[in-house]
Specification:
Layout (H helix, E strand, L loop, with lengths): L1 E3 L10 E5 L4 E5 L4 E3 L3 E6 L8 E10 L3 E16 L7 E7 L4 H16 L2
Antiparallel strand pairs: 1-2, 2-3, 4-5, 5-8, 6-7, 7-8
Length: about 120
């Protein structure tokens, strides 16, 4: 799964979730993805089993290069239906051991996402 952020610089941020490099994807409302340096919470139409390992990628602004891709591995620790039509699920993913540089990038992304909501 990947989380793509094509334009975090603009006020109209578009987030999407993709499985298997885009074979199935979903656009997300701004309140459907929450990121921290320890993990993420997301709403999607996919139900994941507890213990499923996912690779998550974010494209975010970088002062030196314009944009950069951050990739983290994580494990699904919670997944429950959140109702509505079509069916959707809220999942919590805890990131596996991350280097300090990646943690810093996720902290920055978390603040950026929080400030745009």
């Amino acid at each position: 799964m990947r989380n793509r952020e094509p334009s975090l610089f603009s006020t109209s941020r578009v987030a999407s979730l993709s499985l298997d490099y885009g074979t199935d994807d979903q656009e997300c409302a701004e309140n459907e993805i929450f990121v921290s340096e320890r993990g993420m919470r997301m709403r999607s139409r996919w139900q994941f089993e507890i213990g499923t390992q996912l690779s998550v990628s974010f494209v975010c602004p970088d002062t030196d290069r314009g944009q950069r891709r951050i990739t983290a591995e994580g494990v699904v620790v919670w997944c429950e239906p959140c109702g509505g039509r079509p069916a959707s699920y809220e999942s919590t993913l805890l990131f596996l051991e991350l280097p300090d540089e990646l943690k810093q990038g996720l902290r920055e992304l978390s603040h950026l996402l929080g400030s745009s909501q």
